[in-house]
Amino acid sequence: MKTEAARAAAAIRKELKKNGIKATVKSHNYSMGSSIRVVVNDQSPGTFDKIQNFANRFQYGHFDGMTDIYEYSNTNSDLNQAKFVFVDNKFSDEMKQAAFEFIKDTCALEEDFDQYQGNEYKLAFGNRNLGQFIYETLRGDKEFWTQSKKRVLA
Hints:
With 154 residues, the protein is α+β, with helices and mostly antiparallel strands. The chain is built from 5 helices and 5 strands, in the order αββαβββααα.
């Protein structure tokens, strides 16, 4: 017999699959609670926000750190829900490389780097290193994602 969190995870998985989005969706049950973790790969910020908004419907409420209590602010008797829902967007090395190339082209980097290799480069952009700049590009640069779509379609 599946737990409520497992049924909620199955509903999320089914909806994502129906929309052609590959994801790992797992439920966890523990003393005094339950959670669901959704992991997607290489999703644009717009798509990721839609996934996150959809998945958040399956969370009962939120933890209020000021009063140190969990508030049931999103209870929906029509849905199976869990206490917490976490959604992560993991980026592949290929996507990080594409973001690096975009940054090289748009920022006219003086340094001649062949490729991005993890967080090894500590090239400063103000108070950000290159790894952080790549992450910020992947998480929200509209121009990068527009150009990425054109590259994929070509």
